[in-house]
Amino acid sequence: MAMKRLRISDIVKGTDMVGREAQVKGWVRTKRGSKNVAFIALNDGSCIHNLQIVVDTEKFDEELLKKITTGAAINVIGKLVESQGKGQSVEMVAEKIELYGVADPLTYPLQKKGHTMEFLREIAHLRPRTNTFGAVFRIRHNMAIAIHSFFHEKGFYYFHTPIITASDCEGAGQMFKVTTLDLDCPPRNDEGTIDFKHDFFGRHANLTVSGQLEGELAAMALGSIYTFGPTFRAENSNTPRHLAEFWMIEPEMAFYEIEDNMDLAEEFIKYLVKWALDHCADDIEFLNNMIDKELRSRLEFVLQHDFVRLGYTEGIKILEDAVAKGQKFEFPIYWGADLAAEHERYLVEQHFKRPVILTDYPKEIKSFYMKQNDDGKTVRAMDVLFPKIGEIIGGSQREEDYDKLLTRANEMGVPMDDIWWYMDTRKYGTAPHSGFGLGFERLLLFVTGMSNIRDVIPFPRTPNNADF
Question: What pTM, to 2 d.p., does this model score?
Answer without folding.
Answer: 0.94
